[in-house]
Amino acid sequence: MLRIANLRGVFTGEGFAKMQGRRPCAEDCGFREGPLDLICCPTSGRIVDLVPTGRASTFPLTDTLDGSGLIATSAWIDSHTHALFAGHRSTEFFARWAGKTYREISDSGGGIHNTIRDTAAANATLAQDLEHRLRQMLAAGTAVVEVKTGYGATASDERRMLQIIADVRHRPGLPEVVSTYLGLHTVPRDVSRSTHVASMTAVVEEIAKNQLASFVDAFPEQGFSTLEESRDFLEAGRRHGLGIKVHADEITDMGASLAGIRLGAASIDHLEHISDAAVTALRDSPTVATLLPATSLFLGIGFADARRLIHAGARVALASDFNPGSAPASDLQLTMLLAASQLMMTAAEIFCAITYNAAGALGFDATHGVLATGKAANIALWKTSSPLSVASNIEGLEQIIIQRTRPIAVVVRGQLSVGEISSDCERPPQ
Q1: Is 14 exposed, middle or buried (0-12, 13-18, 19+ CB in 10 A)?
Q2: What's the CATH code of the domain at 44?
Q3: What CATH number is associated with residue 118?
Q4: How far apart are the C-alpha atoms of 391 and 372, rounded to whole Å?
């Protein structure tokens, strides 16, 4: 067993689960004042106890981390990334800032088409690059990362990308990885739309059978995929046991949010132009509304209306949307800061959005996003100068958000994965 000893305090997040991630407040953060010890089982990857420091444990302890002066939270969960790619699109950002639109760049052969070409040409280095990015994300406090495909021109290319994700995810010292088959991202210029959609849909059964993905995803938008094409593709995924995620209403109101809710999507993501009907539907739906404010920053488009969604009773998550063309920032620190300054979200709402609700966006909030007995031992340890007590605990989270603090250490599935901290246990080989 691993003991994280003498913690200054622990944010359990247990109130988020009680409220189903809706309208989170400071009390829901579940702060417990220390000194406390968290005890984890590296074999099961679960938390087995949270006890006052000094109390004898009924579990055999083999390793100890010194948590003196530190606070513990659930490690972050990034439920929407495009972290498997090659190349960069820096020139496009300057083109947009000079007046070109995202669609104009795509129509001229740029945008996603550029990344598809670069990714095809960099086959030998893709796995190494993905591993490097995942290590960077882990160092910033993220213990679970969703990785999408979407930069393959053909179904064969997309399957190859899923295999790369599968190979990398088992390497030691990395975050947990959830893979998503983004089959309908953009249509290559040398094939018809109907042919492309049919070929991408035809491999869904094989992908599900070989457990290469947990979700299917589509990008219904003008100039990309139609809502009808996307719905058919997503329904094919559902028939074969895969979860559903949707890039919804980012640039225009395509009705994609409401369609995703009706399909039972785990999450609908972006939502800058979500309709009133979809917002109302989210109130009684388990579907998570995932907001990606870094994309709005880099594209120069309006931010999603988080206050409207939260007040309506929707479950709101935050994610980085890390990708080369619209959100080239792999850490959630920027996302959190933008959520506070541009989406007007409170520290408690942000904390819930990158832990419990982000877990919901990936379909495993029954096991992740809360620090409690039996839950996943994905733990971030932080040092703050804020005076923490049960009455004023929220200041610690506010400091982490505003100062873009990085964790002292991160534990993934009960094992120290990254960080400089006094211990008598070894980190996994890097």
Answers
A1: middle
A2: 2.30.40.10
A3: 3.20.20.140
A4: 21
Stated length of the chain: 430
Query: Residue 11 — φ and ψ, nearest 5°?
Result: -95, 105
How far apart are alpha carbons 370 and 360 in whole angstroms? Answer: 11
| 369 in Cβ contact with 16 (< 8 Å) | yes
Both tokens of residue 36? 């406390």
DSSP 369: S
pLDDT at 113 over 90: no
* Alpha carbons 30 and 181: distance in angstroms, whole number: 35
Q: Which amino acid is at 142?
A: T
CB 21 within 8 A of CB 357: yes
Residues 189 and 310 reside in one and the same domain: yes
Same domain, 382 and 415: yes
Residues 85 and 154 in one domain: yes
Look at residue 420 in the predicted model and tell me its pLDDT. 67
Whether residue 131 is found in the same domain as residue 85 = yes
Q: Which of these, 258, 296, 253, 292, lies nearest to 273 by C-alpha position?
A: 253
Give the CA angle between residues 132, 136, 140 to the nearest 5°: 165
CA distances from 272 to 252, 257, 283, 341, 406 (A): 8, 10, 18, 16, 29
**Secondary structure of 186-199 as H, E, C letters:** CCCCCCCHHHHHHH
Nearest Cα neighbor of 338 from 288, 401, 405 is 401
* Residue 247 burial by Cβ neighbours in a 10 Å radius (0-12, 13-18, 19+): buried
pLDDT confidence of 429, banded at 50, 70, 90?
very low
Q: Which amino acid is at 209?
A: K
Could you tell me if 54 and 171 lie in one domain?
no
Q: Which residue in 347, 338, 256, 244 sits closest to 298, CA to CA?
A: 338
The range of the structural domain enclosing residue 71 comes to 2-75+367-419
Domain count, the chain: 2
% of the chain with per-residue pLDDT over 90: 79
Report how many helices (DSSP H) and strands (DSSP E) the chain contains, helices first. 17, 16
The band of 423, judged by pLDDT with boundaries at 50, 70 and 90, is low
